[in-house]
Write a structure and sequence with these properties.
The protein is an alpha/beta fold. Among the domains are: about 15-25 and about 40-210, ANL, N-terminal domain (Rossmann fold, 3-Layer(aba) Sandwich); about 370-435, Luciferase, Domain 3 (Luciferase, domain 3); about 440-545, 2-Layer Sandwich (GMP Synthetase, Chain A, domain 3), CATH 3.30.300.30.
């Protein structure tokens, strides 16, 4: 016997219909390429999303056609988020910091037909123009006047100006009712070896993920919030924030291309932001700026941090010096991305700040919709004792089943191997100890690069740190710590090694400390350890001799 409830497919368009009807006057604020501030609202976003859809309809593009974006976080990008997916096409967000050849490869692999781009990426479009035969039109996210100011546009006849194109379209449209399993967006991940792999989300997975993202034990969004997603919209759809914000009617603030600390702080304060999301490296710079300038937050009360492990010292600084709660989260592109968030339990209400920081440092408890198991190398289930580390496997309605255009079976009895190494404690908190490709195996024992990095970051003269393995004839692998000192400091190798004494086992202390002016960062602020290894290690996996002066 079936229930007698109405049957409405879970379509992304339902978010837009809801937010337009019930939160239409809520602001959407964007910092534009010329540093000006643009203000609109959800009602106008919804109207212009319909214009986007009508424009795609006029080109008679079939359902499922891939439409690419190469853009910063902005109101125009938000219009495309909804206009493309709600019309039945597939939004393909591309990382603009990739090499043009990589972008061309992705566009060709996805068979993108329309390509929207911010004019800051015009040189990239010029380089890939002749290598992307599937693309019919390149649409610059600007006015006609701004398009005319670009060089050599006569040599690129497929170019159109977004404002001219969208203003020619009607805003009248009834959104199609789509099968909720229809593809909605496509993100490529470079987290594996070889060519990037496409993760194809659907309407159902996106809506369910938005429900969970907005829950109090996740990001905890409501209509009273003003949200600044520093995480790029091209990175796992900004962690689903554009969808969760529409679901609850929250105000959105977009920083565009300006991710420097001064610009971010100004937006946080001027727009009265209550919640923001970014990777740790962004917050490291911002916290340093605040402390140098003797500044405080007036409205920010929580931030969600993901992408890589958040150092305990950062969580403690946010909480004790600025009164901001850190929601430490874990997930990945293949998980849409949220899997765990380090919220507190009922029995944690009377804990001290130090005890809260210890809990927040963990990657968090599993959110509803995701299931996790941790197994050893032989596939045996490991106990939740906070000690037994193994391979993290996940399953759930917003977790990948297969990669786009791939016939390879990537699931093990329905479970996806994340490539992370972790343990689960007695209260159900996940504790990531490493990526399987980054874990250091020394004399048969595991050394967590994350633990080493976190300890290094608690040194008063260390601004950034990364730990990698180098080859050792006796122990197979040993840890090497790469450090970026804080401005106006000159820490010694010995002072940093001394900092580890009595905090970890002696054999876990890094043998060598390499000092650098900066660490290579990816588009989302993650430290690129693959690039770092090239900079620090020889082809044989040894530390380059010129980096070891004074340490031998």
């Amino acid at each position: 016997m079936f229930g007698l409830m109405q049957d409405h497919p879970l379509n992304i368009s339902s978010l837009l219909i809801h937010v337009e009807k019930y939160h239409g006057d809520t602001e959407i604020v964007s910092k534009c390429l010329d540093s000006s501030i643009h203000r609109t609202n959800w009602k106008t976003i919804a109207s212009r999303a319909r214009q986007v859809a009508n424009g795609l309809n006029r080109w008679d593009l079939a359902s499922g056609t891939r439409i690419a974006t190469l853009a910063w976080n902005s109101y125009r990008h938000l219009e495309l988020f909804y206009g493309i997916s709600c019309s039945g096409r597939v939004l393909h967000t591309i990382n603009p910091r990739l090499h043009p050849d990589q972008i061309s490869w992705m566009a060709n692999h996805a068979e993108d037909v329309i390509f929207y781009f911010d004019i800051t990426f015009y040189s990239t479009v010029q380089k890939m123009y002749d290598t992307t035969p599937h693309i019919r039109h390149y649409i610059a996210l600007c006015t006609e006047e701004e398009l005319m100011q670009l060089d050599d546009i006569a040599n690129y006849p497929k170019l159109l100006a977004y404002e001219t194109w969208i203003n020619a379209q009607s805003s009248q449209l009834e959104w199609p009712v789509l099968d909720e399993n229809s593809a909605s967006s496509l993100c490529y991940t470079s987290g594996t070896t070889g060519n990037p792999k496409g993760v194809l989300y659907n309407h159902r997975s996106t809506i369910l993920h938005a429900f969970t993202a907005a829950l109090p034990d996740a990001i905890g969004l409501s209509a009273t919030d003003t949200v600044l997603p520093v995480v790029p919209m091209f990175h796992v759809n900004a962690w689903g924030i554009p969808y969760a914000a529409a679901m609850v009617g929250a105000k959105l603030v977009f920083h565009g291309q300006f991710s420097d600390s001064q610009s971010l702080y100004h937006l946080l304060e001027s727009e009265k932001v209550t919640v923001a999301g970014a990777v740790p490296t962004v917050w490291m710079s911002l916290l340093s700026y605040l402390q140098t300038q003797n500044l405080k937050f007036s409205t920010l009360n929580r931030t969600i941090i993901g992408g890589s492990a958040c150092p305990p010292v950062m969580i403690q600084t946010f909480l004790e010096k600025f009164g901001v709660s850190v929601l430490h989260a874990w997930g990945m592109t293949e998980m849409s991305p949220i899997g765990t968030v380090a919220g507190l339990r009922n029995n944690h209400r009377n804990l001290s700040n130090d005890e809260i920081v210890k809990i927040r440092t963990k990657q968090g408890r599993v959110v509803f919709g995701v299931d996790i198991k941790i197994i050893d190398d032989d596939g045996n289930l490991l106990p939740s004792d906070g000690k037994s580390s193994g391979h993290v496997l996940v399953k759930g309605p917003w977790i990948i089943q297969n990669y786009f255009k791939s016939t390879e079976n990537i699931l093990d009895d329905g479970w996806f191997d994340t490539g992370d190494i972790a343990c689960m404690d007695e209260e159900g908190y996940l504790i990531i100890t490493d990526r399987s490709k980054d874990v250091i195996k020394s004399g048969g024992e595991w050394i967590s690069s994350i633990d080493i990095e976190n300890l290094a970051l608690s040194h008063p003269e260390v601004a950034m740190a990364a730990c990698i393995a180098y080859k050792d004839p006796k122990w197979d692998e040993r840890p090497c710590l790469i450090v970026v000192p804080k401005p106006s400091t000159q820490p010694s190798s010995q002072s940093i090694k001394d900092h580890f004494v009595d905090k970890v086992a002696k054999w876990q202390i890094p043998d060598f400390i390499v000092f650098k002016d900066a660490l290579p960062l990816g588009a989302t602020g993650k430290i690129l350890k693959t690039q770092l290894r090239k900079e620090v290690l020889t082809e044989n996996g040894l530390i380059k001799p010129d980096l070891l002066e004074g340490q031998l």
